[in-house]
Amino acid sequence: MAEARGRAQRRYVREKATIDHLVRDVYEQKAPDEKHTERNPITSTGLPVEDQVRKEWDPRKGGLLTF
Q1: In b/e form, how buried is each residue of 2-28, taking b as 16+ CB within 10 angstroms?
Q2: How far is residue 3's CA from residue 12's CA, in Å, rounded to a whole number?
Q3: Element (DSSP H or E) covering residue 5
Q4: CA distance 19 to 25
Q5: From first to last of its 67 residues, what are the pLDDT tens digits of the chain?
Q6: Residue 48: CB partners within 8 Å, gap ≥ 6?
Q7: pTM over 0.70
């Protein structure tokens, strides 16, 4: 019984090492793209983003309840 448990443990360690080796590059942190990290506070129409959102949102068409 102890031999089977030891064999299963060694197989688990081998499989984990193989999986870790294969996915190591997949989850590597990448540097953020400098062009996409900065947002402009003004839309292309010249309005601030908050005003543009308020302009396009109509509470009669649906939305959250305000009390």
Answers
A1: eeeeeeeeeeeeeeeeeeeeeeeeeee
A2: 14
A3: helix 2-23
A4: 11
A5: 778 888 999 999 999 999 888 888 777 666 766 656 667 788 777 878 777 766 666 767 776 656 5
A6: 41, 42
A7: no
